[in-house]
Design goal:
The protein is α+β, with helices and mostly antiparallel strands. The chain contains six helices and seven strands, in the order αααββααβββββα.
């Protein structure tokens, strides 16, 4: 009985200490840091995001358009998309890898497919159509092509980018 009482007291003390300790000190990944949107914008502009993404009239059409991402995603989901982008790949943003009968491998954003052909956008933003009869291999890529920022950006930089992306509500 004493052991149970001591265990309960120790558990209560541990919970009280955990509640009093800020999440950042506990290493809590869900602790929200205040982000600076201007710093986030500068990071987006300098980190190669525009190689795939588009904001307003700037950037590529290959990846998702981020012009209104702040009205479609919560800050928690934006952060998750940055640190673990493969956890949620929207079907509209899936890529395909095809190998032609000649052995040429092409990866691109799937635009359309039917029983006869596959249409995709290649990394140069060129629209391409491939007849299925001329393909040796066709694979829908389940994972996204976006790299994780984990280990590349610190928590404050991620918070800054999330703050910036959250502000993008469209015009």
């Amino acid at each position: 009985m004493t052991n149970l009482r001591e265990t309960m007291v120790a558990l209560g003390v541990a919970l009280a200490l955990a509640a009093a300790t800020p999440g950042a000190q506990r290493g809590d990944q869900n602790e929200t840091l205040a982000g600076d949107g201007e710093r986030g914008k500068a990071l987006v502009e300098s980190s190669g995001c525009f190689d795939c993404h588009r904001i307003d009239e700037r950037g590529s059409r290959l990846g998702p358009n981020l012009s209104r991402i702040g009205s479609r995603r919560t800050p928690v989901r934006l952060r998750q998309a940055l640190v673990a982008p493969d956890e949620e790949v929207v079907p509209d943003n899936r890529f395909v890898r095809i190998v032609t009968k000649e052995g040429t491998t092409v990866t691109g954003k799937l635009l359309n497919q039917d029983a006869i052909s596959v249409q995709l956008m290649n990394p140069k933003e060129e629209l391409k159509t491939y007849l299925r009869a001329n393909l040796r291999e066709y694979t829908i890529i389940d994972k996204g092509l976006m790299p994780s920022v984990e280990g590349k950006l610190n928590a404050q930089q991620v918070a800054d980018i999330v703050s910036y992306l959250s502000s993008l509500k469209g015009s």
